[in-house]
Amino acid sequence: MTVRVLGIETSCDETAAGVVADGRLVLSNIVSSQASFHERFGGVVPEVAARKHVEMITLVLREALDSAKVGPGDLDAVAVSAWHGLFGALIMGVAAAKALALAYRVPLIGVHHVEGHMYANVIAEPDIDFPHVCLTASGGHTMIVYVRNHGDYQVLGETRDDAAGESFDKIAKFLGLGFPGGPLIDRLSKAGDSRAFAFPRPMIRDESLDFSFSGLKTAVTNTLKQYLAEGQQFSTADVAASVQEAIVEVLVKKAVFAARRRGVSTIAVTGGVAANTRLRHLIREVAEMEGFRVVIPPNALCTDNGAMIAAAGFHKLIRGKTSGLDLAPLASAPLSEGS
Ligand code: KG4
Ligand code: ZN
Description:
Blueprint: E1 4-9, E2 14-21, E3 25-33, H1 35-38, H2 46-67, E4 77-83, H3 87-104, E5 108-112, H4 113-124, E6 132-137, E7 142-149, E8 152-158, H5 164-174, H6 181-189, H7 214-229, H8 236-262, E9 266-270, H9 277-289, E10 293-295, H10 299-302, H11 306-318
Parallel strand pairs: 1-4, 4-5, 6-9, 9-10
Antiparallel strand pairs: 1-2, 2-3, 6-7, 7-8
The structure holds 5'-O-[(R)-(carboxyoxy)(hydroxy)phosphoryl]adenosine (KG4) and zinc ion (ZN).
């Protein structure tokens, strides 16, 4: 019997819903991005995000159900990103999920947003090895997680300040590139020289698996201010490529270090930053040279989407981890929340 789970994601600026069969087959994955509404502010405005979710959620849900060819009687559960994100934005998805679960008389499943990202790896590779090490990096978090099994996580390291995606976004804003900065820096870097600027690789030699990215932005702004003060020319593409290289090198080095230290054979990479071309290339190059298997989902599953929440929801459903209609969103919660 096929188990179909609807996943809803509204933790930040994407209104998203997807239907996944048996936790692995994506039947639909609809994402409505609000990026153009936030662009002029240079970042996500929580109030605007929440309002846009209200406008878009029913349309996105209808499209997700229609394109999956799923009717009211065909859904087995409704999963929703409930923990970790903008509170006002999370509330919208959770309210919609409760209404649908109630109307369809199916279980409601709260999912930690970061756990959702990690399930993009399970969709990409349903037979992924356990335990494995997962690097997950987005605009709201950067973590290295030891994944013992479904729902069994140990956070080995995380950022002490800015998330990797946040760092891309802030530096792109400073360079006047637009929002979101990650994809813009990624594109521009292709025309730049990554060795043009020796930006710091924060904590790269540190034994700890934590990250710190806030100093990188300061280093970039100080360097460029000095160039301007001295009347020196610089290429924005070179700056972009050098920044990208610094961030990516730290992420790759720590992920491989963690995998070596924990003796696993597989490294999974997910979250919006996993869409980065250079990261995808370098992690494969470095990890595969050392004999690790690398799992990286396609870009559409790395950035926020409903299918990853549905897949996580499926695995919680079979573990009996459903939520009550009193499910309360939390802006920040440990990864183990509800797992
Ligand atoms: O996972 P996600 O869609 O939303 C959050 O949970 O935050 O990640 C969005 C983040 C943004 O910071 C964005 O700039 C970054 O992921 N991002 C990228 C790329 N695509 C998205 N960063 C670097 N290179 C990319 N190609
Ligand atoms: Zn995310």
